[in-house]
């Protein structure tokens, strides 16, 4: 029997695991970042490790000794790096993709197994739901192919790569000068991409913060 270990802590990523895991001995979920250690993984001895919605660097000692897969919500090699979903929406992208790739020593550069597009329309809860479904389909396909020795990876075209930094909570703020710089669609995109569990969009007012949860533009 194969053993598949998932490291995940975001809700959409845990939901993918819950859809997949039909056998407690075959599938194992870890949500605590402090448990991502070589000693623990050696004890579990998984065949494949999935890092889904995982925000921390995976030690090279783990990548060296196990096949590690990551899922990234962008059409890699574009939008490598942190906050890929938010960076695409604020840039005005209409569509993205869920990409499953084999991890190597640099961020989001490994060979790709699976990539399927999804729409960036709507608010974040709708987008995350779409991501979850496509991530589930891709993961299920990988497990089937792995068990049948038919997994194929394709190298990324590194010349086409774009890299973005992780967004900070401070970038959720709208300041008065922004209204002279950006159009209405920019603010619409900013509000809809910043929903819980991410730091929500806000404006500092005289008596506190005005939290923007839903807006429209013409």
Provide structural commentary.
The strands form three sheets. The protein has a six-stranded mixed sheet. The protein has a two-stranded parallel ribbon with strand order 5-8. Strand 1 (4-8), helix 1 and strand 2 (27-30) form a beta-alpha-beta unit. The chain has helices at residues 11-20, 38-44, 60-65, 84-90, 124-147, 178-181, 184-193, and strands at 4-8, 27-30, 48-52, 67-72, 80-81, 95-102, 112-119, 163-164, 201-205, 208-212. Helix 4 runs antiparallel to helix 7. It is elongated and about 60 Å long. It starts with a strand and ends in a 6-residue tail after the last strand. It contains seven helices and ten strands. The chain is α/β, with parallel strands linked by helices. The model has no long low-confidence stretch (mean pLDDT 94). It has two domains: 4-164, 3-Layer(aba) Sandwich (Rossmann fold); 169-212, Methionyl-tRNA Fmet Formyltransferase, Chain A, domain 2, CATH 3.10.25.20.
Give structural attributes:
23% strand, two-stranded parallel sheet, 2 domains, Rossmann fold, elongated, 218 residues
- Count, helices: 7
Strands ordered across the widest β-sheet: 2-1-3-4-6-7
Percentage of residues assigned to helices:
25-40%
- Point out poorly predicted stretches: none
Let me know the number of strands: 10
Short description, anyone?
The protein is of the alpha/beta class and about 220 residues long. It is built from seven helices and ten strands.
List the helices and strands and how they pair.
Elements: E1 4-8, H1 11-20, E2 27-30, H2 38-44, E3 48-52, H3 60-65, E4 67-72, E5 80-81, H4 84-90, E6 95-102, E7 112-119, H5 124-147, E8 163-164, H6 178-181, H7 184-193, E9 201-205, E10 208-212
Parallel strand pairs: 1-2, 1-3, 3-4, 5-8
Antiparallel strand pairs: 4-6, 6-7, 9-10
């Amino acid at each position: 029997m194969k053993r598949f270990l998932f490291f995940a802590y975001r809700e959409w990523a845990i939901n993918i695991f819950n859809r997949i895991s039909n056998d407690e001995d075959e599938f194992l979920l870890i949500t605590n970042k402090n448990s991502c250690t070589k000693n623990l993984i050696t004890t579990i001895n998984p065949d494949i490790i999935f890092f889904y919605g995982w925000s921390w660097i995976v030690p090279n000692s783990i990548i060296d000794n196990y096949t590690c897969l990551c899922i990234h919500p962008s059409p890699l090699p574009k939008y490598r790096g942190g906050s890929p979903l938010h960076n695409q929406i604020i840039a005005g992208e209409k569509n993205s993709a869920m990409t499953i790739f084999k991890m190597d020593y640099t961020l989001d550069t490994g060979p790709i197994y699976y990539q399927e597009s999804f729409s960036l329309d709507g608010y974040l809860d709708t987008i995350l739901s779409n991501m979850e479904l496509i991530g589930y389909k891709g993961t299920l396909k990988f497990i089937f192919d792995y068990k049948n020795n038919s997994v194929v990876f394709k190298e990324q075209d590194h010349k086409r790569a774009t890299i973005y930094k992780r967004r900070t909570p401070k970038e959720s703020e709208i300041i008065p000068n922004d209204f002279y710089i950006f159009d209405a669609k920019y603010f619409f995109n900013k509000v809809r991409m910043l929903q819980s569990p991410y730091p929500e969009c806000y404006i500092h007012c005289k008596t506190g913060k005005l939290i923007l949860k839903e807006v429209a533009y013409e």
